[in-house]
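User: Quick sanity check before I run a bigger batch. Here is a single chain. Can you write out its predicted 3D structure?
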Amino acid sequence: MPEQQGSSRLSNLSIKTGNGTYQFKVELALDERSQAQGLMFRRSMPADHGMLFIYAPERLISMWMKNTILSLDMLFVMRDGTIARIFERTEPFSELVLSSGQPVYGVLELNAGSVERWGIKSGDQLLHPLLRAQ
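Assistant: Done. Predicted structure follows.
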């Protein structure tokens, strides 16, 4: 069962890259309210934490950084956890729309620099119980 952080659920997530597999604790954004709130107004987040947004059914997803203090790396992912698109080091408070470019099932937000630090690339795999091939 996921841990609790405030009113958010924490869950374990792994990212399998060409360099190895890396572990994260993620908050789950599974409903419209938590997805709309996201990481807005947060001043910090531990290096090994993030937020996983799940959208069912798969769809074109657009995100922005309005009211988001932290710079983030955004990973748009397919139903099976494959990373489809990455935006690195997003600009805090920006209203620039960042699009998945194709229908996706989820978005993983990590601290800015995580993609570079762990060598994460499009095609790498997120491993989490909510991301599985059908």
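The CA atoms of residues 41 and 79 lie 29 Å apart.

User: Great, the batch can go ahead then.
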